[in-house]
Specification:
Blueprint lengths: L1 H4 L11 H23 L17 H6 L1 H12 L3 H12 L4 H8 L4 H21 L1
Length: about 130
């Protein structure tokens, strides 16, 4: 179709020129397709069964032993407080996003909930 769009500009100078013209268009189309594919690779689903042996950013920051104490203390918090801490600290959500997720009336209420939950978490981590 592209060849037919531009055929008015084609000047046959020798025998087989039109086939050469079509071949050139086809090669250019293939090159364009390959360039587009390399710039925008196909999207693939992630396989959740593949485990990463590297420590997480959280593990690297606070170390394995402290992480174990953190996780143990986190399980002792009420569900809503635990969710607020995970959303804010581990996932980095804003206080407004935490408020929306846990059902707080405002970002300030979520900020207060996270602060209290962190204080409880620190106490429970120090008990061990």
């Amino acid at each position: 179709m592209k060849a037919l769009d531009k055929v008015s500009g084609f000047e046959p100078r020798r025998e087989g020129a039109f086939l050469a013209y079509l071949r050139t268009i086809l090669k250019n189309q293939i090159r364009d397709h390959i360039r587009r594919a390399s710039r925008k690779p196909a999207i693939e689903e992630l396989d959740e069964t593949v485990a990463d042996d590297e420590p997480s950013p959280l593990e690297e920051t606070i170390g394995g032993e402290v992480l174990d104490r953190y996780e143990a203390a986190l399980t002792q918090l009420p569900d809503r407080h635990r969710e607020a801490v995970v959303l804010r600290i581990e996932l980095g959500l804003t206080h407004q996003q935490v408020a929306d997720a846990v059902g707080c009336p405002s970002a300030s209420a979520a900020r207060m909930m996270v602060s209290r939950a962190l204080a409880q978490l620190a106490e429970k981590m120090n008990e061990r």
